[in-house]
Specification:
This protein is α/β, with parallel strands linked by helices. It is built from 9 helices and 11 strands. The strands form 2 sheets. The protein has a 6-stranded parallel β-sheet with strand order 7-6-8-9-10-11, sandwiched between helices. A 5-stranded parallel β-sheet has the order 2-1-3-4-5. Helix 1 packs parallel to helix 9.
C-alpha cells in the first residue's frame, strides 16, 4: 500500500509529481496553522505516515503518531520539536537555501525602490501631481553596499551587487557588523537576529531589511533626524505607524521569498528526499540526521 501523506505546504514541479505517484496525498496548503493537538487528530484521522508542513506545530501528540518523516521547507524550525523527533527516529527533512535567489532579488528591488523613490514617483503619476525637479538620486554604481547575514540569500545578493559595480562588504567576507555599518552607503540586513546600531551608520545611509527589524522606534528616530536617508522593510506595520507616513520608506508585507521558484526548490529537495526514504536510502537534506543513526 502507498503511504498516505498530509501536505500543508505548497508544492509543485516534477519531484512533486513523482512523489504523488508513490504516496496517497491529501493536499491542503494555505490553511491556518494547526496547533499540535488538532494536527495530531488530523494525522490520526487520515492515518497519514508523512507530514509536509510550514508553520504547523509539530511537537507532543503530533510526534506520537507513527510518522515515517516530516518535511518542513522553512529556515526557521522553531515550531518543530527536533529533539523529540530525533528520539522517535523521525527524520525532519528541510530545504536549505530554497529562497536564496528570491530574497536576494527582492532585496535589490527594495533597494532600488527606496533609493530612486519609486513609490513617490508612482503616486505623482497616478494623482496627476506635477513633476518634482528635485526627484534625483545617487546611482548604485560606485557606492558601498553592506550585507549583514549569512547563507544563500547573502551570497546571491553579493554577486548581484558586484554586477552593478558596487563595492561589497559583508559578514560572509569576514567583516564585523560594526565595520559593515560604518563604511556602507547602503546596508541590507538579509538574516533575522542581526542587531543594527543606527548610530554607527553613515549619515544619509539607506537601510534595507528583508527580515524583521527589532527596533522600529529607533529606526523612526534615525529617519526623522535625517541621520538615515531612507529605509525599506519587508514586513508589515500598522497603517497608522509613523513609518507608513514617510516618503523615504518603502514597506512590503513579508513576501521576499514568495516566488514559484521557491516552491519548486522546496518541492524538489523535500520530495526527492522522501522518495529516497521510501527506497531505503539516506535523505540528503535532514535537520536531524541523528534520527537516522543505525538505520
Amino acid at each position: 500500500m502507498k503511504p498516505r501523506a498530509l501536505v500543508l505546504a505548497p508544492m509543485r514541479g516534477a519531484a512533486w509529481e513523482r512523489f504523488q505517484e508513490l504516496a496517497e496525498v491529501v493536499y491542503e496548503p494555505g490553511a491556518e496553522p494547526y496547533p499540535a493537538r488538532e494536527l495530531a487528530d488530523r494525522l490520526a484521522e487520515l492515518r497519514a505516515r508523512v507530514l509536509i508542513t510550514e508553520r504547523d506545530e509539530v511537537r507532543g501528540p503530533v510526534l506520537d503518531q507513527p510518522l515515517l518523516a516530516v518535511g518542513c521547507p522553512l529556515d526557521d524550525l522553531s515550531h518543530v520539536d527536533l529533539a523529540a523527533a530525533t528520539a522517535r527516529r523521525v527524520p525532519v527533512l528541510c530545504a536549505p537555501g530554497r529562497d536564496g535567489d528570491a530574497v536576494a532579488e527582492f532585496a535589490l528591488s527594495l533597494l532600488l525602490a527606496v533609493s530612486r523613490r519609486l513609490v513617490v514617483a508612482d503616486r505623482m503619476v497616478r494623482q496627476g501631481l506635477p513633476y518634482a525637479m528635485d526627484h534625483k538620486a545617487w546611482e548604485l554604481a560606485g557606492r558601498t553596499i553592506g550585507i549583514l547575514g549569512h547563507g544563500a540569500a547573502a551570497q546571491a545578493l553579493a554577486w548581484r551587487m558586484t554586477g552593478l559595480r558596487m563595492r561589497v562588504v559583508s559578514q560572509d567576507s569576514g567583516h564585523s557588523v560594526d565595520t559593515v555599518l560604518a563604511v556602507s552607503d547602503m546596508v541590507v540586513v538579509i538574516s533575522p537576529g542581526v542587531p543594527v546600531d543606527f548610530g554607527l551608520m553613515k549619515p544619509g545611509a539607506v537601510l534595507v531589511h528583508t527580515a524583521a527589524p527589532y527596533d522600529l522606534e529607533g529606526l523612526v528616530g534615525a529617519l526623522k533626524t535625517g541621520h538615515l536617508g531612507g529605509a525599506a522593510l519587508d514586513r508589515p506595520v500598522e497603517p497608522r505607524h509613523p513609518l507608513a507616513d514617510m516618503d523615504n520608506v518603502v514597506l512590503a508585507p513579508g513576501i521576499g521569498g514568495a516566488t514559484y521558484d521557491t516552491e519548486l526548490n522546496q518541492s524538489r529537495m523535500i520530495c526527492e528526499d522522501l522518495v529516497r526514504i521510501f527506497g531505503g536510502e539516506t535523505p540528503v537534506h535532514c535537520a536531524n540526521p541523528e534520527a537516522l543513526a543505525g538505520e
